[in-house]
Amino acid sequence: MDFIYKKYLFSKHIIVRDQKADEKCVPEVLFSLARLFNIRIIKGGDLAHRDMIMTVENIMIGTKVPEPFYRGFPKSVLKLTDDRLYYDQILNYLITYGLGDMSKTRHSVFEDEEDIVRKAFKETGSIKDFIIVKEDEAVSILQEMIDNALKGTRSLSEDLFECIDHYVKEYDYDPSYIASKNTAVKLIVYQENTRYAKHLDLSDVIKLTEELNFHYYYSENINQLNLKNKHRKLISEVIHKAFESGRTDVSVCFEKKRKWAGLLHHIHFKPVTEDEKKFADLMRGDVNMSSYSGFENEMREKNIRSALSCLEGSKGSGAVLRNLNYILSRCESEDDIRFVLESIDTKNTIILMQLYISYLQYEFERVPRSFSYVKFNMSKSHIETQKEVERRRSLLDEDTVGKAKEVIGSALRRNLKGRLGRVYINPSMANYALPIQESAGSTGLGVLPKGSRIHIGDAKKIRGFTYWELVDDIDLSVIGLDGRNVQTEFSWRTMADRQSKAIVYSGDETSGYNGGSEYFDVDIEEFRALYPDVRYLIFCDNVFSDKTFARCFCKAGYMLRDREDSGRVFEPKTIESSFIVNNDSRFCYLFAVDLTAGDFVWINTRVDSFENVAGMQSSGHLVDLINVTHVFNLKDFFEMCAEEVTDDISSADVIVTDKTIDIPDGKEIIREYDFEKIIALMN
After folding, report:
1. DSSP 438
2. H-state helical runs in 550-631
3. Is 530's pLDDT higher than 90?
4. Tell me, what DSSP letter sits at residue 45?
5. Element (DSSP H or E) covering residue 427
6. How far apart are CA 601 and CA 11, in angstroms?
7. In a shared domain, residues 296 and 410
8. Domain stops at, among 593, 619, 645
9. Phi-psi region of 507 (alpha: psi -120 to 50; beta: other; left: phi over 0)
10. Is residue 128 part of a domain?
């Protein structure tokens, strides 16, 4: 089986036994999985094969993880003076970046040999439960995952899409239903095959052109196209197919009329039917029949009811929800507000859920808001300037938000009610967020939806790590945020005089083309005492060298270690998560620590940024994400989905848990990492 599938299934705690594997070394393999990685096989143990050791090692670790700059980390770092730490750094930069000597990975010149000698590993680490399946069963599991994922209306993560892309090609699988236009567009672009055009409307051709232009020509500007003939023909064919199937939402196309005119000219579009000719003439002409412009005209005239009717009639109830704040903010009477809220009628659960969460987090004061959105699987954000705050007209009062929250919440509960029968929900599921916006993230062992929490307590310390190949320098950094979102930077630029028991840095590893690594240790209890004003710690990665993550190999994750840790710096048994960072930018957020709660929090966000140094942009917009499970979480979601919630596992049809339990025959189990099942339920 292809490694792409194995890697994705591994994130679901599944190990695949290849059909070609013929030797069995069951006891030895099971012992090695437990001893090396703390992996316990709870099902399919008789299928264990020695090749699995190498597969697990490649997925969890990599092949050449080196010692860090300070090989005795953290012991040796805490023993060195500030002057020696500074000197180590300056000497390393002089040799590597100054003299251009990247021939080998450099280490400290001041460490004592006794600090480098490490004790035998004696930490416990958490046990990870896995199952082993045969290849044919793995293919069936993949098929089910893919079908569930394709029911989602939102963009998929790059890793999940890669899995789908390979699967449909290898097994010649033609999905009968693709809910997300972005997914259908990417399949057309990546495979240069128009058979997925049946899932698109005519207006989606602009989205297709943008994706194609970005993927093959590395440009986000479709106003200056320079496409090859084969791509011009591909776009023309998709347009023809839209007219053949009758999926011609011409009024929506008017919203991007100028882009359409430029595109039709560039691809030398030749209409083959009268409808196509009429459409081309409209896009090239002076008349604009955009349904959205009609909505805006009615809004300017303060005809709220007419505007609502215009928008819903032309673009559907989902468009009303997406513009709900704007519409409500222009209402001048209680009757209009009531009319707007009573008009809400949609089956788009995702939009309802996002609106519901936004109203639960609504900020009534006129303070700068932060906006985040995803484009080409990378996150972009904007924080309002003071002028934008002062000009804002869409601030809602508490009464209006309360009414909207009640209506949206009721609609959401009606939509979800009864999707599952009798459900047992472990209370700990309140720690996990819903996979609503995962397209800008990575998948991997231990990776959870953005905002999900894992309680750490005070018994352990977190060791964040990054490891790379094929690039000279990647930097791991930590950004501290206080209650006012003021930042404190812990990075290669600042750590020489900040090393302490609270936070220790392994040194800035450079010339690591054949394998480099960096680490931060954070002791939560010590950190609280030393930095009482810092509330959140945010771990991030950036490529200092002139490359993007996509053009090198980078892995990141975290370990939970004892305060007095033993064994190697990179100890596989203590790895809680490990994932590949491969976005086409130079910056990404990894995870956070909520120091008040003592929780690890998933962020896992690829950022559209070419900043090669941490701390150059504000991280305050992440606070809402960090606290999202306090507002709405998987426990809340499954309570809405259930026909009945029960405390008796034996009587439940569906068991929702993050614990290892014996599952009775005929029961369905949903775990915190079963994104695809949750996506299917949400849609």
Report:
1. -
2. 623-626
3. yes
4. G
5. none
6. 18
7. yes
8. 619
9. left
10. no
**pTM for this model (two decimals):** 0.91
| C-alpha to C-alpha distances, 119 to 8, 64, 326, nearest whole angstrom | 34, 21, 62
657 and 615 part of one domain: no
**342 shares a domain with 396:** yes
Same domain assignment for residues 488 and 604: yes
In this predicted structure, the answer to whether residue 135 has a pLDDT above a threshold of 70 is: yes
Of 284, 299, 326, at which residue does a domain stop? 284
Q: Compute the average pLDDT of residues 56-73.
A: 85
**Which strand (E) or helix (H) includes residue 245?**
helix 229-245
Residue range 241-261: mean pLDDT, rounded: 93
Confidence of residue 23 (pLDDT cuts 50, 70, 90): low
Q: Does residue 317 surpass a pLDDT of 90? A: no
Return the number of other C-beta atoms located less than 10 Å from residue 149's C-beta. 25
The answer as to whether 560 is a domain residue is yes
Do 454 and 481 fall into the same domain? yes
Task: For residues 58 and 148, give the distance between their C-alpha atoms in angstroms, rounded to a whole number.
Answer: 28
Same domain, 588 and 468: yes
Any idea what the CATH number is for the domain that residue 506 is in?
2.60.60.30
Number of domains in the chain: 4
Identify whether 27 is part of a domain. no
Q: Per the structure block, which two tokens stand in for 155?
A: 């963009």
The answer to whether the beta carbons of residues 544 and 613 sit under 8 Å apart is yes
Closest alpha carbon to 507 in 619, 571, 516: 516
What is the spatial distance between Cα 286 and Cα 270, in angstroms, rounded to a whole number? 20
Eight-class DSSP state of 203: G
**For residue 539, which of 451, 627, 623, 603 has the smallest C-alpha distance?**
603
CA-CA-CA-CA dihedral for 267, 273, 279, 283, to nearest 10: 30
User: Half-sphere exposure of residue 70, counting CA atoms within 13 Å on the CB side?
Assistant: 26
Tokens of 250: 């011409």
- Containing structural domain, residue 529: 444-619
- Does residue 427 share a domain with residue 390? no
CB 165 within 8 A of CB 191: yes
pLDDT confidence of residue 215: 94
Asked if the structure places residue 251 within a domain, the reply is yes
458 and 584 housed in the same domain: yes
DSSP-derived pairing of the beta strands 370-375 and 378-383:
antiparallel
How does DSSP assign 248-266, residue by residue? --HHHHGGGHHHHHHHHHH
